[in-house]
Amino acid sequence: MNSKKIKRGVYLLPNILTTFGLFAGFFAIVLATKGQYADAAVAIFIAMLWDGLDGRVARLTNTQSEFGEQYDSMADLVSFGVAPALLMYFYLFENLGKIGWIAAFIYVAAGALRLARFNTQIGVEDKRYFQGLPSPAAAALVAGMVWAKEMIGPSVYDDQYLTVSAWIILVSAGILMVSNVRYYSFKEINFKGRSSFKLLLLATLILVVISLWPSAILFIFFFAYAISGLIMTTVEIRKKRALKKQAKKSLK
């Protein structure tokens, strides 16, 4: 009887952290409906921090479970799928009619498909890379744009360019999530081992730079990350084509 009870239970610590992330994503939606767009964007970034912690804590404490993986995916769908889409919708698209909510739905649907595909590839995927843009990075791209614009304030170019740019970014982020574009996962970085003092100094400088203007720096970083996958995949495709051409020539 006791063994059955243990099997039916769940690991508390990583799932509590997942719940914190879920709450941050839910709170971002609440803030967006109230017009507190910058605060909503910050809440999404906070959800990212909790999302990064729960997985690492589970691995460090050896408390991984199938329940935790599924719960984490459901929380991610709220925090990195629904929350960014509704934030952008209430921020810029609410008066666009069908064009606005269709863009938001494309992003949400893509996020759900991305997470479902990720779950089916657990244990078999190449840990060095993600297939498609990770949903937290896509959410950071969308939330970072809103946060940066709120910090900059209104400008004469808002009506002409901002809404169109935001629509393109939201839909593109959704498409990249379900694409086959590969993104570096940073999972090979060993945070427990010894490293050069220069790397610690570099990490400190990065944190200082981010703290100076976090909204703009974070948006630029995740925009560059989204582009990096496209560049890396394009280079790999060209290399494969070049190798095929060389193989054909050698056969002749």
What does this structure look like?
There is one protein chain. 78% of the residues lie in helices and 2% in strands. By secondary structure, the chain is mainly α. The protein has one domain: Four Helix Bundle (Hemerythrin (Met), subunit A). The radius of gyration is 20 Å and the shape is globular. Residues 1-6 have low confidence and may be disordered.
Summarize the helix and strand pattern as letters.
Answer: HHHHHEHHEHH
Count of individual domains: 1
Strand content: under 5%
User: What fold name stands as the CATH topology?
Assistant: Four Helix Bundle (Hemerythrin (Met), subunit A)
The CATH superfamily title: CDP-alcohol phosphotransferase transmembrane (TM) domain
Rg on CA atoms, Å: 20 Å
Query: For this structure, what is the CATH class?
Result: Mainly Alpha
Q: What does the average pLDDT come to?
A: 85
How far is it from the N-terminal to the C-terminal residue, by CA? 71 Å
Q: Which bin fits the share of residues in helices?
A: over 70%
Shape: globular
Structural class: mainly alpha
What can be said about the biggest beta sheet?
Answer: 2 strands, antiparallel
